[in-house]
Structure formats: structure tokens, C-alpha cells
Prior knowledge:
eight-stranded mixed β-sheet
Amino acid sequence: MVTYDELTSGSATVAVVGLGYVGLPLAVALSGSFKVVGFDISPRRIEQLNQGRDDTGEVDAARLAAANVEYTCDPARLRDCKLIIVAVPTPIDSHRSPDLRPIRSASTTVGENLSPGSVVVYESTVYPGLTEEVCVPILSERSGLTCGKDFFVGYSPERINPGDKVHTLETIVKVVAGQDAPTTDLLCAVYGAVVTAGVHRASSIKVAEAAKVIENTQRDLNIALMNELALICGKLDIDTIEVLEAAGSKWNFLGFRPGLVGGHCIGVDPYYLTFLAEGLGLHPQVIQAGRRINDSMGKHVAECCIKRLIAAKRPVSGAKVGILGLTFKENVPDLRNTKVVDVISELREYGVEVLVHDPMAAPEEAREEYGLELSPLEALTGLEALIVAVGHRQYAGLTPENVLPRFANPSTGLVMDIRGALDKARYTAAGLSYWRL
Length: 437
């Protein structure tokens, strides 16, 4: 097995496979202590990085320029690498089952270029057992090498929070596990060189895999509880945020808020856990209930919009509704699994004309992924309702004064603030109808 001294001396190279939100910050961080090759299957992505641009916004231009990383889409470069870290997406398919194509494909590429003595560590979110039961056989078959003898595997789940400049790779404790003690020792040393918060040694790869999926499943369930509370408060005609602020005065109350739950972690990881559980003959009720609630919130927001327009005697079919924000969370350009599209789709079912603006999203990606044409902000006029779906920093300056002129009839203008980012008192004082979850 490759040694830590070989890696620190530069006689052995580290490779990071997949240069997205997770892989790029990792490659850049590792390059301060090791010789690093960054591999991605997208020539466009490699070209951007070689030009010093990161469209994900996770690594700033100065840090990217200072990093000593060789970016390539040539898989043959992996043959010279002794520690290979796989950080590719693990999405779900249209049936909400794990889509293992990216991780299978990455394992195939790595296996075909695997040299004896190498260590392969996965960071992709998976269900417990997947690394050893799915990835290792692919690596062995494609390389002709024996796991545990000719090469070794480990798992260290990513914990990146896109757009978060406080909780970064370096400041979040890294969970690390290898197939045996020497592999775990090596990985702890490597990650420990860049993660100042330290590492947590898991007793097995399965434990580390399970820890990752339960992290986001717990958050999913807590948000589902808040969303269900929002539904109840709506029926009682009381303000959910006011309820949460009151409850939050107790020291041990957890500060979760209702909202749309999308993205490639919280909205996806629970399905990996339920997929495994059902294969074991278990039918997890709490996890699935939370998913049903969170997946229904886009429809709920759209229905609340329609009901309020009808109550105000405003037109529905042919009405123009503006939506601010399309990405899955604030201040990131990532459109993967955004639940804003559920709101859009439901509104269109009622014959509503939906205009979407997002300063962070790439127009071509919105077009390719969802068939949506993004609109300039100045085009959002003659509206019946304005839905603030994502609280990007660019929307922080919104005021009733600059919102009012956007409505066809300002006296009946409806502002829907999904995340409660706006000042409710100011908007209601301006005569606008204001709603939030």
C-alpha cells in the first residue's frame, strides 16, 4: 500500500475524481500538502478550471489560481495516482430510487486505470454497504486486482454545505473509515493534513456510510415537522414564524424553519436509506412520512397562491406570476433537484403564466434541465403575485416601494415569501397581501 511519506514527498500522487461542489474544494485543499491531479469527465469543466474559473462559486479566483492542481479529463492520468478520491454525485431517478450510474461509471474508470498498491476512497453519499458490495467488485473486475491485497478502499463522506463560507471542508470534522486499520491510519493522516477540525475514526466503512445518510435524514425530518406545523398554522390562521420565534425562546428548542427541501443532499439521501431498508424487508414509516410532506410543499405553495388570487377576485387563467429564485438554496447556482420547479409546474396547471428570475442560475442550465427560460428582473411586471422562492443576497434590497410597481393592480398585489426573508410588517403596512409558510 502507498505510504503517507510517499504522498507527502510527492513521489506518489493524489487524484480527485469529480470536480464539483465537493471535489474541487478538496483538490485545492489537498494541493497545499500533496501532488494532486483533478479529474472530471466534462471537458467544459476542465477548461473553466484551467482558465481559473469555478462556476460553482465554492473556490474563489485567488485561491484557485494559487492551487497547484493538474486538471484533466484524460483517465490515463489516474494510472500514476496512488490515492484516488471519488467525489461524484449520487442522485435519485424518476422513481426516487438511487441512481448509481455516476458512481458505477467512476468506479469503472478508476478500475481501468488502477495500479497495484493504490487506495481508493469514496466521498459520495451512499447507503451502508454500497462501497464494498457495488464499487469494490467493479474495481476488481476492471483492474484485475484483488481488494485487500493489491489495492485497498476507504470511505469518508463529504460534508460540504454549498454556499457556506463558515462551515467549510477545513472546519468540519471528517469521518474516516478504511477496510482495515492501516488503510484507516493512512486516510486519517491525509485528511488530517487539511482538516483543522480533526477526523473521527469510524469502526467500519458501513458505519461511516450510515453516518452520512442519517445526518441529512435527521435534517429532512426536522424540516418536515416544521412544514407540517406550517400546514396546521395555516388552517388556524396564525403565523408559523411567530410560533417558532415564541417556541425558540426555550434554550433547547431546535431552530428549523419550514420551506422547500431540494438539492442533492437533504432531498435525496433519505431515499438511499429507505431503499436499503426495503431491501431488508423493513418499511421505514417516519422517514417516508417526512419525505412525503417535504415533497408536497411546492404544490401547497402554488395552491395557496391560487386560492388567494381567487379570494381577491383576481384572474387565474392567464395571470402573470413572478418567481424570484430557482436554485435549490440561497446564494448558490446549483439547480439540481430544486423544488421551485414544483411550484412552477403546479401554477402552470392552472393556466398561470410564470416568469422566473434568478441572478445565480445559468440560463442554459435552466433550459437544459427544466425547459425554463429565465427572465430579466425588469420583465417581471403586470403581475398578480410575486413569489420570493429563494432568498439570494441580491434580493435583500427588496422593499414594498420597488415591488408595488410590478403588480397589475397594486391594491391586490400578493407577495408570497416562502422562507420568511422579508419584513412582514412593512409589506402589510404598504397594503400588500403578504403570505409566508
